[in-house]
Amino acid sequence: MKHFSWILRIFHIFILYTWIAFILLFPASPVFSLQIYVLLNILFALVFTGFFISQIVEAFKIFKRGDSEQCIKAFLFFKYSSLPAVLILLAIFLVVLLGGIGLSFVLLVLPATLFIAPFFFAMSLVVAPLFLGISFMAGLAGLSYAIFLILLSRKEKGWTLGQCILHFIFQCIPGFDILDGLYITVRYWKRGKILSIITAICAILGLTFILFMRS
């Protein structure tokens, strides 16, 4: 059953990145059709929702057993594997929203395009929230395991209600959720030390790269 659970988790992430690739690449395909695009996105959403529900059920079973080791492993797996997808979708959301609004204002000052400006403005307000919703869906599995890990920590490690609320807030913020998760697992559960070292190295390298590019 443990092997089957991990197969479901891997397929969950596989479907997520396949969906993102479809969203980004299919519009550039020579066989692009809006009807097919919409229908396949609905299909992806339904399949992904099914995988997500299975993870909620699995997380609840792990919590009922009090199996902190499996909860931590699943929590870290989903947080690390889904973070790039969440960030990509958030970036698309911002580009579509701000780009659409900015373009609509530019079109407003040009007489020839004055009448199509409201269309771009409306499209940005309709399409952008869809990417925000998909981004939220992408992080739901990791958030579910995070919630149950917080409940286990309250039950077995004596966390206060304030600690639970604070860590829940951190778990809702992409990027901070990884750091907070490592703090929880290393500080309270004595696990995840190797991942904490890898994360620290990646953070240092990323910061160094950003500073180098700015200089």
Low-confidence stretches: none
Q: Please give the count of helices.
A: 8
Number of strands: 0
Mean pLDDT: 83
The SS-based structural class is mainly alpha
Pfam family, one: DUF6652
Transmembrane segments: 6-26, 38-57, 77-98, 105-124, 130-152, 164-186, 192-212
Keywords: Membrane, Transmembrane, Transmembrane helix
InterPro entries: DUF6652 (IPR046594)
Labels describing this entry:
215 residues, mainly alpha, membrane
Summarize the topology.
Layout: H1 2-25, H2 34-65, H3 68-108, H4 117-138, H5 140-156, H6 161-171, H7 176-187, H8 193-214
Helix pairs in contact: 1-2, 1-3, 2-5, 3-4, 3-5, 3-7, 5-6, 7-8
What does this entry look like structurally?
Helices cover 84% and strands 0% of the residues. With 215 residues, it is mostly helical. The protein has one domain (3-214). Helix 1 packs parallel to helix 3 (68-108) and helix 7 (176-187) runs antiparallel to helix 8. It is elongated.
Would you kindly provide a brief summary of this structure?
The chain has 215 residues and is mostly helical. 84% of the residues lie in helices and 0% in strands. Helix 1 (2-25) runs antiparallel to helix 2 (34-65), helix 3 (68-108) crosses helix 5 and helix 7 (176-187) runs antiparallel to helix 8 (193-214).
